[in-house]
Specification:
The chain has helices at 3-32, 62-80, 110-116, 118-121, 130-170, 185-196, and strands at residues 36-42, 53-59, 86-88, 95-99, 103-109, 126-128. It is of the alpha+beta class and 197 residues long. It is rod-shaped and about 125 Å long.
């Protein structure tokens, strides 16, 4: 695997986690606004050209559907600065679609949801409740945190050894001695003997 592929995969993973956080926030809004039978469909990678997730919820009347759509838009804009790419069906209110590219929110009236039955159309998708989705996201973020902490704990040791290596490399070389080396004892005795003679 080359560095470019690794970098692309890291960016994809980060974007996927961010998308999961946005979906989780939208699902929380559905629960807060009394949306019924809220489901998250994690689409198969084959379908991911379309989107990564579908968030589907039901409302009892058109006013409630519009209120859920408005609150999702407001919360995602306020907390994350994210706007929907397109919004469909807001006037009628029987099926409101908020397209955030990486995920799509479908807010149905109960009878419309039964008629279109998106869950059946997307059989390859993995259905999750908001609680299951939340648990998966927390587990993924906890694993990422543990991995980051493990790298951080290992890094100071290597940084310390690198600092020692740099310090020893930057130490000035020992100065050359200007003092003459001591001559061996036999040589000294011979010199003295030759002078006396």
């Amino acid at each position: 695997m080359c560095i470019g592929e690794l970098f692309d995969r890291m960016i994809f993973t980060q974007a996927h986690e961010q998308t999961r956080i946005l979906v989780q926030t939208a699902a929380a809004v559905c629960e807060d606004k009394k949306g019924e039978d809220t489901r998250i469909l994690e689409l198969d990678p084959i379908d991911s050209g379309l989107s990564d997730f579908f968030l589907i919820t039901s409302a009892t009347n058109d006013r409630q559907a519009i209120a859920i759509a408005d609150e999702i838009e407001h919360r995602l804009k306020k907390e994350f600065g994210v706007f929907p790419n397109s919004v469909e069906g807001r006037r009628k209110g029987d099926w409101i679609l908020l397209d955030y590219v990486d995920f799509v929110v479908h807010i149905f009236l109960a009878e419309r949801r039964a008629f279109y039955d998106i869950e059946r159309l997307r059989k390859s998708a993995r259905p999750l409740t908001p609680t299951e989705f939340d648990q998966e996201l927390k587990a993924a973020l906890a694993a990422k945190t543990r991995a980051a902490r493990g790298k951080a704990a290992a890094k100071p040791k290597s940084a310390l050894s690198e600092a020692k290596a740099k310090k020893s490399a930057t130490k000035p070389a020992a100065k050359k001695s200007t003092v003459k080396k001591a001559t061996p004892r036999k040589a000294v005795v011979k010199k003295l003997a030759s002078k006396k003679a």
